[in-house]
Each structure stands twice: as C-alpha cells, then as structure tokens.
Amino acid sequence: MRVLAGLTVMVGHSGGVLIGRAEEGSDAWWLGHLAEAVNPWAVPMFFMIAGWAVLAGAPPRTEAKMWDRIVRHLVPLGAWSIIFVLGFNLFDSDEVNVRHDLVRSLLEAGRPGFHLWYLYAYIPLILVFGTLVLFWKGLRPWRLAALALVLAGSTVWAPFVLEALGSEQTAWKWGFATYQVVYFVIGAFVIHHAAELRPPLWSLCLLFAVSALGVLWWESRKSYPIENANPLIVGLALSVILIVSRLRLGNRSKRVFTRLASASFGAFLVHVFFLELFFEQLFDVEAGPALLVVQYLGLLAAMAAASYALSFAWGRLRLRRILG
Q: Total domain count for the chain?
C-alpha cells in the first residue's frame, strides 16, 4: 500500500502540472485530469496506513518508541524543507525567497516543497493517538501528553506570538482536520479487517471506476483540486484497500515490495525535483494525443525510477534518519 500510494502521488502531481501548463480543454489538459482522477486516494491512504499502524498493526509499546516515530518523520520534514528552498533557489526554477520560505517552513508547507503539507497533520495525528494508546495500556507518557496539549492550543498562541514578534508570517498549519481523523480511524479498521470484508471483486472495481469518473467530473467541471474530505475519495480509498487485500505475493515478490517500501517515503520526498525537471521543463503540452501519452508514461517512469534510485542511494549511506 505504501508503494502504490507513493507512486500514485507521482501520477497525480504530474497530472496537476499538465493541467496548470495546458490550455483548458486541450488534449494535455484532459490527460492531466485523467491522471488526477485516479490519484486523490493516495495521500489520505498515508493517514489510513498510519492509523492502522498506531491503533492496530504496530501500536507503540513505550513512550520512547513513540518519540522515535515522531522524530523519524520530523527530521526528514525539516531536512527537505531546507533542501527544497535552497535547491530551487540555486537552479532558479521557482520563485524562492530563501529567508522568508525557510522561516515559513517552520509554520506550514508551501512551494517549492508543497507536497510536504501532509506531514504537518500526520505528525500531530500520530502524536495524539499514540499518546492515547499508551495511556490505554496503563503507561504515563506525560511528555507526549504535554506536547499534545501545547499543540492543541497552537492555533491561538502561535499567531499571537508571530504578531508580537512583528513577523510577516501569518499561517500556522500544525494540526489536523476532522476528515484526517476519520481516515486515520476508519482506515485502521478497514485495513485490519480487510481479509474479512470480501465483497465481490467486480463491485470493488465498479466502485473505483465510478468514484474516479466522479472525481474527473468534479475537478474538470466544479472545482480543482478536489478536497480530500470529498466522499468520492472515500470510495477510491476503500476500493483500493479491499482490492489490494486480495493479492497474494510469493516470497520473491514480498522481498521486492519490502525493499521498495523501505525507500518509498524517501522517493515521495525527493520526487518534486524530477517533477519540475521532466514535466515543467521537458514535457511538450502541444504534442499530438499519441505523443502526449508516450511522453507522459515515459517521463513518469523516469521520475519514479530516479526518485527511488536516489532514495536507495542515501539508504545505503545510512542517511534514512535524515532524508527519509
């Protein structure tokens, strides 16, 4: 699921670039929307997998283990926030105000590292629910609870502090929304009991197809991008979980996916550099329909391969704790 979700994010982001670059109604514009139509389940799936891990699959046993999970996501978030701001500034491929954007990354995600936004909700989610699990087990994780309480009031005290300091920054995105909690909790249940939830396969494929067509209509006719709380995304996510749960992998396939999964977070973090290179700089949105598809599939494969190759490389260098 982690591998599929990470690759599907790349599909959606590349489609989004085509939508932004092409004229409305053009072939490239519709190709972008087709890519986006099958993508919106991917980031909510990260919340669902996290919910399964914290609540059912691998609940934390100690406070130290929970701190380790938080740090494993917080450090790469900080590292890549800096890397993206400095990297895009160096290559002059995006409008970057280094000082402003480095400070902003402490408060929220934005360009050029726009895809990091989910970690500003993901980390508070695992903090709060991990703390609740430890209390439920009879432990007393007071430091985690104190951090959760500080974070709970941050929507009030953070803007007040920024204003008192005379800062031009106004946004504060550390926290989670109701829909993210729902994905976290419902995802934990559905993933954990997927083997017992076995509707006919044709009905799951139909649910995915209808939901994707709904997303295509919504984003092309109503509003783009679709909101993550949209019920259509629930249909996509649930159908993907229950379809994938039917797969049975051999030992060799398990080893391959285990290895890919170890690098999937890093590949997700770095892929925006290749998104910029391939789809912003090299993709010809004026090409004919056949060439558009060939370009899209070829550059998508190149982006995924390059992202995973780099992630495997820093994994060999034992830099996962820093770079994800």
A: 2
